[in-house]
Predict the 3D structure of the following.
Amino acid sequence: MSKFTLISHLSLLTLGAVLTGVAAEAAPKSTFDGRKGLSNTAPSPQQLAQVTSVSQLSDVQPTDWAFQALQSLVERYGCIAGYPDGTFRGNNFMTRYEFAAGLNACLDQIIAITEGGSDLDPSDLATIRRLQEEFSAELATLRGRVDGLEARTSELEANQFSTTTKLEGEAIFALGNVFDSTLDNNETVFQQRVRLNFVSSFTGQDRLLTRLQVGNSVPFGTTGTNQGLNFGPSGEGVLASQVFGDSDNSVNLESLAYSFPLGESVDVIVGATGLHFADFTPTLNPYFDDKDGGNGALSAFGQHNPIYRLGGGAGIGLNLSFGDSFQVTTGYLASEADSPSPGDGLFNGDISALAQLTYTPTPEVGFAVTYNYGYFGEGNFGFNNGGGSGFDNTNFGFTGTTFANNLGAVNAVTSHSIGAQLSWSLSPGLNVNAWGSYSDIYLRTNELDGEIWNWALGLAFPDLVLPGNLGGVIVGAQPYLGGLEDTNSFFENDIPLHLEGFYQVQVSENISITPGLVWLLNPNQDADNDSVFIGTLRGTFSF
């Protein structure tokens, strides 16, 4: 065998994605992406199989220009390995480290053959040794990287939290004040809320979420009168970080839900507590909706269409995909599912059902239409995730507290709501989102019909000034009572406007600081009330 032929054969190693020992350069990596869960994305070295004949490689054909060279390397020197699926993948790219590892393994095999008594020209042997010396630096670096990787892997295995669960957390520090001449409780406050999410996967495609929450974030409220009557505080000024955030610093189980796929096009979620429609329904508000978390819009109203807050608790949700563009979402939630008392339970208590069709023709554009049906007992109606009508649980809106604290307190309510959402990324630096919804309500005791409206327009400016930062402007009308049969003389129905602006500064991958202002006009849907200004500085720590 000539020196030229030997070197030509060795140079063909660059055509292979894997030779014996090549894959030792890196260990598998684990990822988690919600539907897929925890999964390995790279084959382990033990999965590679030595081949004894080039015919074992299904993607290598006799007509390939390198067939003879590969055949010689396999049958004469035995230094070619294939992938577990029986392929060689000769067109894959490889790094210099991979080449060095494969070359070294092949040369060691050739030298072992010669030392066993096989004939090899001395000049060819010298060429082999020169090649080994040329790549000695890469081999030494590669061995160091593998040793370091093995040490890190051993340490992680010895100290891992769980083989099936990872811990995610968020801590919010919020400094804020409400400026309103009619309020007595307009002191500056410093509040906090902490969430710990235990995210588990048992099959690699399912997801069990267990969320613990603790905080002292007492919601802001407005107490302006309507027609001179004080109907108590409304939730117009509630911030996203204050949603269910006042636990008096006691740890609570805020959410427990399990999601899993059924085939390729159906996703299922079952919640035992704390499940909301926005948890599994596309709200089409990608930059502002953080599930009431510490990123995105400052206010609860700015997070997404209030139609998703009509109901909550325990229940089930389904997402069905039709191709790449259409998705149908359905869900049923009961806020008193755990109570065996008469009039409560999974089917006789407060219940709500939702159906939505989402159309996303491109990644930049999305449109959805939504229907929500609800039944709520006396005093329980509200856009509050099924939390009852009390102020502590009212996340925001229904600014018509005339209804909420009077007529609603003595009436069970049936509601039929329809809504529409739009999201459009006009450019990498500008996203427009808009929504609107209408609710037809029926007061069952007084036998009265009414209507509730809300709408909003939002502009998001990702990477504003610096990469990772986010600017946002929201203009809209929080849910207000547009009319109620035979009772319009009780109240003014001026449109309560909501204006919000914020700028989120991404200090690092895990820390953001967001100053902003919320301006409420015509609070309690009465233009005689003074405007309310809410200033806040939010710090978010994610881990």
User: Anything to note?
Assistant: Residues 3-158 form one domain. Helices lie at 3-11, 67-77, 96-115, 122-134, 136-159, 345-348, 401-407. The radius of gyration is 32 Å. The longest helix spans residues 136-159.
